[in-house]
Amino acid sequence: MAGSGNAHMRGVNDTLLQVDDLTVEFPLGGDRIVHAVSGISFDIAKGETLGLVGESGCGKSTTGRAILQLPSPTSGSVVLNGEDLTALDPASMRSHRTDIQMIFQDPISSLNPRRSVGDVVAEPLHVWGPKDKDQQWKLVARMLDAVGIDPDVARHKYPHEFSGGQCQRISIARALVLEPELIICDEPVSALDVSVQAQILNLLEDLKEEYGLTLVFIAHDLAVVKNISDRVVVMYLGKMCEMSESDELYAHPAHPYTELLLESSPIPDPTVEIDSEMIAGGELPSPINPPSGCRFRTRCDRADDICSTDEPMMRRVSDDHYVACHHPLVPVEEVTVDIS
Amino acid sequence: MTTVSDALDQRTDDDNEALLVVDDLRTHFEVPAGSVKAVDGVSFSLARGRTLGVVGESGSGKTVLSRSVMGLNVASNAHSTGSVLYDGQELIGRPIKQMKDLWGVEMAMVFQDPMTSLNPVVKVGRQLTEHMRHHLQISKSEARELAVELLRSVRIPEPDERFGNYPHQLSGGMRQRVSIAIALACSPKLLFADEPTTALDVTVQHQILNLLGQQQQERGMTMILVTHDLGVVAGRADEIAVMYAGKVVEKAPTETLFAEMHHPYTQALLWSIPKTSNPKHTRLSAISGRPPDLINPPSGCKFSPRCPYAQNRCHEEEPILAKGVGPDHTFACHFPVGSPASQEAFDRNLEAGLPQTLAAAGRIGATEDLPDESWQ
Ligand SMILES: Nc1ncnc2c1ncn2[C@@H]1O[C@H](COP(=O)(O)OP(=O)(O)OP(=O)(O)O)[C@@H](O)[C@H]1O
Ligand SMILES: Nc1ncnc2c1ncn2[C@@H]1O[C@H](COP(=O)(O)OP(=O)(O)O)[C@@H](O)[C@H]1O
Ligand code: SF4
Ligand code: SF4
Ligand SMILES: [Mg+2]
Ligand SMILES: [Mg+2]
């Protein structure tokens, strides 16, 4: 298959979400196709946080949206609580929209500017919640309170009257109001200051605890992803590079791209020497014509002939640590089967 | 990374002289509700070839400070007082027409959003050549040659081809490279980079910051690097000024600032950054609340409503800048971090259950740590 294999799938019995060989293509007219996501697989157990990390354009948001069937993937399956969402007709999918919610990067523009905060948070309830207004407000007030916004003060104010961090709290309240099982957080802190970022990350950890949430957390900052995630998937140009339990990933990165991301991450310590050689070469190749073999090979200093001809498959580094690379930075188990 | 200052060990007295001396600079904006004190008494001097990092949360006045130095606050409701000496000349009070002669040639700015400085409907090559021909007496073909060379120097691949691209045909990182090329086109002596990488991926951010550092070394430029992230300036600035509510609350050579920070706000900014060296699910020490209203700021120390160390004195008496470690370290705080008095203050607040102190100690959740939301 075109993806990077599925040796890393666990098949545990408390799996909430299982994504298998997910592929999303966008036709551009002619025979040009954007290969946004090409054969991604992962599973998430109930109560876990899975981090999705990679550069802009690598397909993180598309993966998140494909889980919600927005749009539904070109191929592959998305199984939530044992039910394949890709096989559902739109009406049955709508009934599942209460199970999965999404929060977005730009907190201010993701809230309707013409509606009061009380209405914004109540919005999902109009379709799926109780019809009684008082009952709706009770739920809304509880959620606003949970995210640290005073419900009575905020109720009749508008989003522009709040700071970026407060707007992100409000969108979290809106995502929570239907008591979903899974929340897909698409770069929820990328547009925020470090100080507000810390508040939101702590808030998500608290809410996860309190409401037993399962999270997909998308970001390009490795330090942020590590802090919040139990397991991390590193993506590059629509493919998986590496999947690991978080602490292990950072202790023993196996994929050259993971290492590049780690080296690029700013470290708040002036005694740590910066690698100042890297000045150019950071451009992502086009997803319309992705490189053959390993898609990372145009930027990889370990690349050789096999990297341009053969797609690397997921191989085991250790328990819950897998890498798709012909020349990984740490030893891997040799592949036994490779059914393409 | 070695900074330019390392290379300037044998500088002459003349070189040693500050390129920029800012004294008691204030920029206030008159709005119906009152006067927004965006920059409120900032003083510093910056020697040639050095990099100053300016750090603070959103709204602390970093951008207004940079724009005030460059004379870019042309809004009719803006008013700047104090002194900005650039290369010995006073800039405050200069007519805008004379300031324009300095822009590009003496001082230039790279903005957070490259589209601020790029025209979306003009090819990038033409934007560069027009800018150069406006300032330098050169022919069209010379300008083209220089422009391609410049695109190459900011590491744009296939510069000849990119010359004919519109901005939207370039990635975010490439656009920022082009706006850096435009800022560098007329060889300015002083470069402001206002959050030049905040909108970019970590890998691209790393490269753009390296590019700025390399260009600075080659050209012997002086640079002011503005960011909200102490991690960005840690290995890249010679000295750092931390701003809060329009004032510099601490300033020191970079190593001193990190090793011996005295101001609780500097410490809070550092502590709120997640680190890859920490195990997963490490609770972050968040700063409670948010920056104050600049029309009616709190009395006493402006950080006092959020400060984990705050005591009664802090609410009443505004601390003034004092000397810290060594001659170049200054800070404004009654209970400097690391002093016995500050430890006592912290413990007292912890005992009393002050929310921001509990939050700083990582004891309570973010849902409870907003004691003083300033609702408009
Ligand atoms: N033209 C204006 N009229 C009124 N207030 C203004 C004007 N320009 C800026 N301000 C105010 O000045 C203060 C400082 O703004 P500034 O843009 O310098 O912050 P900053 O530190 O650069 O923040 P950020 O990190 O968000 O860029 C803010 O409170 C802002 O709202
Ligand atoms: N509706 C669409 N039509 C065409 N291309 C798209 C569409 N949505 C996303 N893409 C492309 O798919 C790739 C992955 O995009 P995205 O998932 O948004 O990346 P990320 O979230 O990782 O930054 C990009 O090349 C993007 O331009
Ligand atoms: S070594 Fe080869 S397979 Fe591994 S990342 Fe580099 S190019 Fe890809
Ligand atoms: S003066 Fe007081 S309130 Fe201000 S920073 Fe120092 S300890 Fe905190
Ligand atoms: Mg995205
Ligand atoms: Mg700014």
Verbal overview:
The complex is a heterodimer of chains A (340) and B (376). With 340 residues, chain A is α/β, with parallel strands linked by helices. Chain A is 30% helix and 22% strand. Chain A folds into 2 domains: 15-99 and 180-323, P-loop containing nucleotide triphosphate hydrolases (Rossmann fold, 3-Layer(aba) Sandwich); 110-179, no CATH class. In chain A, the strands form 2 sheets. Chain A has an 8-stranded mixed sheet with strand order 6-7-8-3-9-10-12-11, sandwiched between helices. In chain A, strands 2-1-4-5 form a 4-stranded antiparallel sheet, with helices on one face. In chain A, a hairpin with a 2-residue loop joins strand 11 (315-318) and strand 12 (321-323). In chain A, helix 3 (117-128) packs across helix 4 (133-146) and helix 4 (133-146) crosses helix 6. Chain A is globular, with a radius of gyration of 21 Å. Chain B has 15 helices and 12 strands. In chain B, strand 4 (78-86) and strand 5 (89-90) form a beta hairpin. Mean pLDDT of chain B is 88; it is low at 1-15 and 365-376. Bound molecules: adenosine-5'-triphosphate, adenosine-5'-diphosphate, iron/sulfur cluster (2 copies) and magnesium ion (2 copies). One magnesium ion (MG) is lined by residues 60-61, 186-187 of chain A.
Summarize the helix and strand pattern of chain B as letters. Answer: HHEEEHEEHEHHHHEHEHEEHHHEEHH
What is the count of helical runs of chain B? Answer: 15
CATH architecture of the largest domain in chain A: 3-Layer(aba) Sandwich
Largest sheet of chain B: 8 strands, mixed
Biggest interface, CB < 8 A: A-B, 65 and 61 residues
- Poorly predicted regions of chain B are 1-15, 365-376
The biggest sheet of chain A amounts to: 8 strands, mixed
Rg calc of chain B: 22 Å
Task: List the strand order in the largest sheet of chain A.
Answer: 6-7-8-3-9-10-12-11
Shape of chain A: globular
**What is the helix content of chain A?**
25-40%
Q: What is the straight-line distance between the termini of chain A?
A: 5 Å
Q: Cofactors and ligands present?
A: adenosine-5'-triphosphate, adenosine-5'-diphosphate, iron/sulfur cluster, magnesium ion
Walk across the major sheet of chain B and give the strand order. Answer: 6-7-8-3-9-10-12-11
